[in-house]
Amino acid sequence: MSDIVASAPGKFIVLGEHAVVYGKPAVALAVDRRFTCRVRRSSRPNVNGRPFERGVHLHLDTIIGRNSCPPVSLETESEIPSGSGLGSSAAMSSAFSAAVRALCGRELDEREIAVDAFEAEYAAQGRASPMDASASTHGGGVVVNGPRGDRPLWSISKNSNTWDVSETDVPEMTFVVGYTGIKAPTGPQVEKVRKYRAKSRFAAEILDEIGQTALEGIGALDCNDVEGLGRLMTHDHKLLSILGVSCKELNKLVNAAERHSYGAKLTGSGGGGSMVALTDDPEAVCKAIALRGGQPFVVRTGEEGVRVSEILQ
């Protein structure tokens, strides 16, 4: 009997959150904080020593169902704060999918793992894009619905939307994440935007502009234009604020970081969670964020995607 250990990285969205749900461009970078799953066959399915509950563990239940997985015991360990906007649920889903596939002797196909993780996110949140799942599975830099000619990874469709996922090189850049300490589940924020979009053409236009900003940001990344990317990040934050997904705590941290960075913005679904700043002076940004009550940390980008190992008992 053996245990399977799998881990996947968290991520942050450089540009394009919320708009990507509706098929617009976005770009995300994997970071050096990981979620680890350890699974073994078990007569009584459990999660961290507690009984598995289908209604509680929606992400895990979706992946178990998609893979006809036998009962397992699951232990988890995370370096990614939950509800921080850094993709903890996608990293968990990618790692768990890889682990149960390995446990069942199935091929570790990146696209299938990404689809598993996306379907788990969709089931738990009610609406999602495959960006987080793709970034956690593949690692590095991931572009969704970018320009034609990018290096394609896979396409994923759901209902009336199709997302084309490609990889992109990640220039050497320094980012500081500032966590508000407010856990902000993705689902309610996504639903808030959906309702706003359904009743307001203005909201739909803002989402279009967020997508266009992301498209320009992909070009800035390709050219290693740090100043241009920073300006687009700041503009994107203003658009997301107009959309109603920022909050006073995020705005406080963004404003503090802007003095020492090329640009700063919320990252993820908003409502709390984290912001991210692109900077050459991470020490000054960390200090500014901490003085405003945030929890800062420097992240390394270009992180490896999902990985699996077997431990013999």
Shape: globular
Task: Give the beta-strand count.
Answer: 13
Describe the main β-sheet briefly. 9 strands, mixed
Q: Do you know the CATH topology of the largest domain?
A: Ribosomal Protein S5, domain 2
Global mean pLDDT: 93
Low-confidence stretches: none
Give the number of helices.
9
**Could you state the order of secondary-structure elements as H and E?**
EEEEHEHHHEEEEHHHHEEHEE
Radius of gyration: 19 Å
* Gap from first CA to last CA: 6 Å
Q: How much of the sequence is in beta strands?
A: 25-35%
Look at the structure and give the CATH class of the largest domain.
Answer: Alpha Beta
Helix content: 25-40%
Q: CATH architecture of the largest domain, please?
A: 2-Layer Sandwich
Q: How many domains is the backbone divided into?
A: 2
Computed structural class = alpha+beta
Plain-language structure description:
With 313 residues, this protein is an alpha+beta fold. It has 2 domains: 2-170 and 302-312, Ribosomal Protein S5, domain 2 (2-Layer Sandwich); 175-299, GHMP kinase, C-terminal domain (Alpha-Beta Plaits), CATH 3.30.70.890. Helix content is 40%, strand content 28%. The chain is built from 9 helices and 13 strands. The strands form 2 sheets. Strands 1, 2, 3, 4, 5, 6, 7, 8 and 13 form a 9-stranded mixed β-sheet that branches. A 4-stranded antiparallel β-sheet has the order 10-11-9-12. Strand 7 (151-158) and strand 8 form a beta hairpin. Helix 1 (58-66) runs parallel beside helix 2 (88-103), helix 2 (88-103) crosses helix 3 and helix 2 (88-103) crosses helix 4. The longest helix is centred in the last third of the chain and has 22 residues, at 201-222. The chain is globular, with a radius of gyration of 19 Å.
